[in-house]
Amino acid sequence: MSHSSPRRERSRFMKRHISKHAVTIDTSKARSNADVVKMCVKELGLIEFPCGRKDAGCDIYWHELHFDDNPSPSGGKVNKFPGMEDICSKMTLFRCLDTMRELYPTDYDFYPRTWYLPAQFEKFSSEVQKMKEKRKKLRQTFIIKPYGGSSGEGIYLLKEPKDYISAYPSKRGMCHVAQEYMANVYLIDDFKFDFRIYVVLKSLEPLEFYICKEGLARFSTVPYQSPTKKNMHETFMHLTNYSLNKRSKTFSHSEEVDEGSKRTLSSVMSRIDMNGQDSRQVWEDIENVVCKTVVAIVPEAKVAMHRSIAPGKSDPTYFQVLGFDILLLNDLKPILLEINGSPSLFMDSEQEISPGVTKYVRSTKDEEVKFPLIRDTLLLVMSPHKRKHCEKKRRKRMMHLKKLRSSHDSLIARPSSEVMTCIQTYDDKEVQDVEKGKEEVEDTMNQQMSDLYVDVDLPQFMENYHSENEHEQENVIEEGEHHDPYEDDEPHLEDNCLKQLYPGLYREECDQFRTLERAARLYINFVGVRKSPGMSSSAFRTFVRKCELSKKGLTNAAVDIMYIDLQRRWDHMNPGSSTTCLSFQAFLDACFEIARNSFSAPTKIEMLNGVLSYCESQLHLKENET
Predict the structure, then answer these.
(1) pLDDT tens-digit map of 263-299
(2) Whole-number Å distance between alpha carbons of 300 and 85
(3) C-alpha span between 266 and 256 (Å, rounded)
(4) Burial of 60 (0-12, 13-18, 19+ CB in 10 A)
(5) Closest CA to 197 of 326, 309, 102
(6) CA dihedral 412, 415, 417, 422 (to 10 degrees)
(7) pLDDT by residue (tens digit) across 163-173?
(8) How far apart are CA 299 and CA 295, in angstroms?
(9) DSSP secondary structure letters along 186-230
(10) What is the pTM of this model?
(11) What does the alpha-carbon distance between residue 16 and residue 25 come to, in Å, rounded to a whole number?
(12) Three-state secondary structure call for residue 439
């Protein structure tokens, strides 16, 4: 008789015995995230499917990079929003922020002035020349970053715009972002650093996002000096990317709290306090930067989500962990450098043990930050009843672990004679020395504690688990009538590492900047069909007709000319990605143009509100008529 493999038997058993309260997670696409996710799975008592679960699906799907890793799940929660990878790219992100700066110039001053090359090379050159004329003694430095680049690759500094062409002729076809280089930075121990701030975007509709109270500080590995022609090539001085600096011979792997080339955010904040400055104000300013940035990218994210999901499909819901890279200026003003849509969750550091030989060593600083971040993110996205059940089971396991540890401590503390007797009772061998006996007892207890989380006998454990849940369901009325001894210890979100920014503390402040979401709703309404790459010419004409913009002087000929002009302009801004449709950014340009011509007002935001309100009112009237 043939026997099924243990893996197949385990799979069949899991299908039959998974409780309705259990939380299942698909980690088949987790890749480098798998280590920290598996730790959280064990901590929370989730049921993991490392090879996927095709038949019934899972509650949570964890992807390493982007939504397209596995675009097929129906239902459940996926840890990547569709299109977020492109939205977090340098070009799209800073275009979103530039649009907000046009509308709210004084509020969106927390990122460097930006140009998009090669499309804006002439503008870049002329504006740099004007800067020189105004500040003759000060020679500004600029940093060039490749579109879609990561890990600090391809980044360099320059003093003159002409060097962009002459020094890199082979890269003329590539797109780059040019930004003012922030030279007057805050230093610790003479080294430049930046923060990696973790933000959890729980949902877009309704908007809800959180900030992690702990983060990382990444340090350069060469003492900082203001950029000159002699030191501009010193990447280990001017760039703080961990993936670059870990190659430096002077990279410090120290695990001391206030030492090393990678430290916790809280340790740096303590240094700021020790220097007589207010770290609480710094953190509040960082929260403001996060809020305004998230509000700026939400319209694009909503458009991307509409565009990415096929029509007629049962949609999953989405959440995502984002990594904000923030630099502090000398006056402690936070400056946004970029957003990483897939921040590294790797908890090991690469160390050279001999020339050419490296090994991976667990970084306690990474684990201190990333483990609670992912654990609390998983708790955050669970449905309320499953989260409550998960927390209850977790508390029971922790109490069991505490008892095991107490038992372990009491055994180790017993007199030598008792330890020997204990060993003789369980091991029918000759008398062994006391130290060996202690080690065996300790190993046994450590194994028991390890088994509590991982290496349990699966069929027996699942039978007990299933039986226990049936017993709970049979007595659910009785449990409701009696006091649950675990309820007093019910953890609340305030006790976690995640702090809600919106809605909540910053709701009123954020709401005043959410105008572009109204434009996104208009765009989505007229794009219509999902999976469409953008707004076609016929859809643009329909938008103008249904909003009755002809009453504001917009003729059919003007509409066609505007569409062609916008399409050419954005094809020029995005070489290599030409399309016959208008992107959302191009549609915004159309709204601005219509607003300037027909809805004159003192400020751009008033003009834009004018055209949006007019369009919304016309569409609302037509809906009421039908």
Answers:
(1) 999 999 999 999 999 999 999 999 999 999 999 999 9
(2) 12
(3) 13
(4) buried
(5) 326
(6) -30
(7) 886 555 445 55
(8) 8
(9) --BTTB-EEEEEEEEEEEETTEEEEEES--EEEE-SS------TT
(10) 0.84
(11) 17
(12) helix
